[in-house]
Amino acid sequence: MGSKREQAIVGLFVLVASAVLVATVFALTGAFAGAAVTYRAYFPFAGGLEPGATVRYAGGPKVGRVEKLQLDPKDPSRIEITFSVKSGLPVKTDAHVKIMSLSPLGDNHLEIVPGSERATLAATGTVLPSDPYVDFNALTAKINDIAPQAQQLLKTLNDRAGDLQVTLARINDLLNDSNRANLAATLAETRGLIAENRAPVRTTVKNLSSATEKLEPLLEDLRKTSAQANETLNHVDSLIGENRADVRQAVIDLRRSLATVTDLTAHLDQMLDVNSENIDELLENLRHVSQNLKEFTNTIKTRPYTLIRANNPREHKTGERQ
To answer: Which 3 state secondary structure label does DSSP give 96?
Structure first.
């Protein structure tokens, strides 16, 4: 009686354990999770994925499994991966998949990168775009490809570093203690010179301004004198009826002289800055020139015959016959 009871207990335990095992297998395979949605993707390199590999959504929880891997019948250079995910997952038409790993030593899994909100849901069997998988060997090959360029870059950087060291050495030599002391002394002397000569500089500027103010009326007078002389020459030219070459040449030379005087008047303002030290002497000379021009103009107005005759006529006395 006791042995039969023990056999019944053992049998019951075996049945419970078998039921738990079957339930676990179905749970792992997703049999109780409802209908699954199947998609496909193509990769030139599968990264060691096998049927049963995990499918994750946006780096989050497991949402499905890889169902099948096979060569693409139309293009043997790529692998067709069929995977299934649980229904209700928002896989959009612009979503894409890639092969990833959660850690450098972890197994690879298939990752679904979400699409945009405006895109529609992808139907069952849709081929989703994929990102090529780059494994460690591919990275090593790329590093080997850029190694010569990296060496050339390092060599160039070393050369530039050498040039920079030479430049820094020159700058340090230029800014040594002696040069800094000389520069400081020069600045101090310049500052002291400006401070000492501030009053003479102000006086010089004031004198220059005063001389400029005095020169303006003189220039205006010289312009008027030149205009009067030009008008007098025109009057004398109209009075002279003879077609004498020497008289006309004299008039032409006088016109040239007046043009030169006019140009001189125009450039006197520019000469102030260059010849500031000789302004007083220049003013005196201009006064003499203006006075001479006035005397010459008065002479031509009163005695125009002096342009024709070499000597002045004898002064006529009262009561004397001509």
So the answer is: strand
